[in-house]
């Protein structure tokens, strides 16, 4: 009687049943349904694996150098801004320290010597005035480069005089005599009638307009600007016409 070999150990049999072949491994993203026959087989093992794709890595853009033209423009803007601030502060300091004021124009005295008509529309007149031009500044000298004074009746110009340029020291006053002669000046009929009525009523109203170009020197700084004076005067009738009232305003 032949003897049968002993059965394999149970541990070795279990290891053999657990050995898997590569073709028995199913790789997919989702679980795969198993066949009923395969699932019933004790030696069939199904393994499901999921492959996770790696997320893309965010990369920083490469470093780029700033264009030199942009740096140059930025430097110019900075210098321009600083210069504006500097000159603004300097102007404010000078203004507060000096306190500049505009020169003034006034009429001290006036005489209306003659008013007559060669015809109803052509006027002749003789008028003199004494102008007072003053510089009220205590620390600034001014120079009058252009001075024109115009004589008006109503809104009609009847004579013009000019004054030679001159320099005026601080707190200085200058008296200037101006002689206005009107010869055959055309006046509309209504203005001629109005002037005759004023002469007969012993009250003649004239308007005087002065235009002056002033130059101011403050160390290294020089400033030129225009001044405009407006005066309304009231005279008695000629030949002894004297100044009765006046009102003058000077502004830029």
From TrEMBL:
<feature type="transmembrane region" description="Helical">
    <location>
        <begin position="69"/>
        <end position="98"/>
    </location>
</feature>
<dbReference type="Pfam" id="PF03168">
    <property type="entry name" value="LEA_2"/>
</dbReference>
<keyword id="KW-1133">Transmembrane helix</keyword>
<keyword id="KW-0472">Membrane</keyword>
<dbReference type="InterPro" id="IPR004864">
    <property type="entry name" value="LEA_2"/>
</dbReference>
<dbReference type="GO" id="GO:0005886">
    <property type="term" value="C:plasma membrane"/>
</dbReference>
<keyword id="KW-0812">Transmembrane</keyword>
<dbReference type="GO" id="GO:0098542">
    <property type="term" value="P:defense response to other organism"/>
</dbReference>
<protein>
    <recommendedName>
        <fullName>Late embryogenesis abundant protein LEA-2 subgroup domain-containing protein</fullName>
    </recommendedName>
</protein>
<feature type="domain" description="Late embryogenesis abundant protein LEA-2 subgroup">
    <location>
        <begin position="132"/>
        <end position="222"/>
    </location>
</feature>
<dbReference type="InterPro" id="IPR044839">
    <property type="entry name" value="NDR1-like"/>
</dbReference>
């Amino acid at each position: 009687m032949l003897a049968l070999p002993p059965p394999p150990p149970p541990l070795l049999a279990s290891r053999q049943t657990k050995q898997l072949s590569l073709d028995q491994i199913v790789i997919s993203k989702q679980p795969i349904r198993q066949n009923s026959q395969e699932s019933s087989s004790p030696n069939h093992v199904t393994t499901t694996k999921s492959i996770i794709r790696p997320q893309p890595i965010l990369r920083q853009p490469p470093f780029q150098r700033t264009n030199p033209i942009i740096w140059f423009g930025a430097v110019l803007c900075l210098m321009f801004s600083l210069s504006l601030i500097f000159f603004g502060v300097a102007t404010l300091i000078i203004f507060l320290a000096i306190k500049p004021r505009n020169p003034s124009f006034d009429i001290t005295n006036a005489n209306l010597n003659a008013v007559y008509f060669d015809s109803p529309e052509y006027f002749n007149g003789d008028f003199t005035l004494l102008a007072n031009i003053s510089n009220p500044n205590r620390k600034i000298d001014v120079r009058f480069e252009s001075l024109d004074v115009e004589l008006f009746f109503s809104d009609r110009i009847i004579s013009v005089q000019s004054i030679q340029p001159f320099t005026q020291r601080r707190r200085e006053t200058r008296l200037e005599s101006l002689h206005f002669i009107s010869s055959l000046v055309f006046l509309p009929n209504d203005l001629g009638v109005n002037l005759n009525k004023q002469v007969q009523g012993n009250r003649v109203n004239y308007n005087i307009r002065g235009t002056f170009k002033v130059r101011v020197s403050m160390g290294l700084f020089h400033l030129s600007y225009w001044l405009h004076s407006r005066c309304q005067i009231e005279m008695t009738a000629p030949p002894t016409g004297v100044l009765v009232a006046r009102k003058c305003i000077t502004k830029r």
